[in-house]
């Protein structure tokens, strides 16, 4: 008896199988890694990874196609992280555009984007790890006449008053280190000493933005806001901008919830009466109001600029956020 023939389905339905090249590790030293992935259009994505928090990119940038010598140019004005877009937007809309401080450099995509777009006079970056600074310069093009990099412990440099030796007041103070992501928040970061020095660095109308990715939205955030507002020379309001719960059903240590805490003069957070912004006053949509209104007129062509599911809510003060949005929109500088 002849064996019965068995026919297996065509798994690929006669379609050509296209294999994408695996990401290439360009450097791997002292717990830091730089990885690059080629894209179908000839461009590439490059990012930096820390082995201690491998689920998060420290920096991710897009590069153009290679030139005749094989060199790829970094697209400085295409910020990939929503938190970086918000921080750059805050710097762009500061009433007095002077110097900006960024705590935590990574690949320095954020400071380079602000400089490339003309959003800051000078940018001071405080980065702890020498290898990160080297990688930022070597692989991410982090070199600019108005970029000043300080290799130091960011918290100590602020709290000790060392940053206070700068020859000008700051328009914006950006904290891009995930201090708030871990159960034990650094004691110095929620100390009166740190926040008194921080406010002393700023112009009277200056603002602070803190990357609060993975932060405990109750105890840790409340402690930070309480100390930061208590140390300010005048009344300060706090605005938390983060994704809605519906955007991601489950936030985990591998996929932590993103967010940016904005601290600024309280009068700029008061409720506004104008109808020029299409937003629910009780739950304003920062990206819908700002990015949707001004994209195409800003210098920076941020990738995936419109994030309609990111909302803003007040923290600590029972105030409306719409006035703050009107303040930002009214002070946007075009180039």
TrEMBL record:
<dbReference type="InterPro" id="IPR029063">
    <property type="entry name" value="SAM-dependent_MTases_sf"/>
</dbReference>
<keyword id="KW-0808">Transferase</keyword>
<keyword id="KW-0695">RNA-directed DNA polymerase</keyword>
<feature type="transmembrane region" description="Helical">
    <location>
        <begin position="86"/>
        <end position="110"/>
    </location>
</feature>
<keyword id="KW-0812">Transmembrane</keyword>
<dbReference type="GO" id="GO:0003964">
    <property type="term" value="F:RNA-directed DNA polymerase activity"/>
</dbReference>
<keyword id="KW-0472">Membrane</keyword>
<keyword id="KW-0548">Nucleotidyltransferase</keyword>
<protein>
    <submittedName>
        <fullName>LINE-1 reverse transcriptase-like</fullName>
    </submittedName>
</protein>
<keyword id="KW-1133">Transmembrane helix</keyword>
């Amino acid at each position: 008896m002849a064996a019965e023939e068995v026919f297996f389905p065509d798994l690929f339905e006669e379609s050509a199988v296209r294999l994408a090249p695996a990401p290439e590790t360009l450097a791997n030293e002292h717990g830091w890694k730089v990885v690059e992935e080629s894209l179908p259009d000839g461009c590439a994505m490059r990012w930096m990874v820390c082995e201690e928090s491998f689920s998060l990119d420290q920096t991710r940038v897009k590069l153009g196609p290679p030139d005749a010598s094989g060199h790829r140019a970094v697209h400085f004005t295409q910020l990939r992280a929503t938190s970086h877009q918000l921080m750059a937007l805050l710097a762009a809309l500061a009433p007095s555009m002077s110097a900006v401080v960024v705590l935590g450099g990574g690949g320095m995509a954020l400071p380079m984007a602000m400089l490339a777009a003309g959003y800051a006079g000078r940018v001071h970056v405080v980065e702890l790890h020498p290898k990160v600074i080297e990688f930022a310069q070597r692989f991410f093009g982090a070199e600019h006449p108005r970029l000043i990099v300080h290799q130091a412990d960011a918290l100590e440099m602020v709290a000790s008053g060392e940053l206070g030796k700068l020859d000008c007041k700051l328009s914006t103070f950006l904290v891009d280190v995930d201090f708030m992501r871990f159960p034990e928040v650094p004691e110095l970061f929620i100390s009166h000493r740190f926040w008194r020095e921080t406010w002393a660095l700023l112009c009277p109308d200056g603002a602070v933005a803190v990357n609060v990715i993975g932060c405990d939205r109750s105890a840790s955030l409340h402690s930070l806001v309480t100390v930061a507002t208590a140390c300010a020379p005048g009344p300060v309001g706090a605005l938390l901008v983060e994704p809605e719960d519906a955007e991601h059903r489950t936030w985990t240590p591998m996929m932590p919830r993103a967010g940016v805490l904005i601290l600024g003069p309280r009068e700029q957070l008061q409720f506004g009466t104008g109808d020029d912004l299409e937003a629910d006053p009780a739950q304003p949509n920062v990206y819908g109001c700002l990015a949707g209104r001004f994209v195409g007129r800003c210098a920076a062509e941020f990738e995936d600029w419109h994030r309609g599911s990111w909302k803003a809510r007040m923290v600590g003060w029972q105030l409306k956020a719409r006035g703050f949005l009107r303040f930002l929109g009214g002070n946007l500088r075009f180039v």
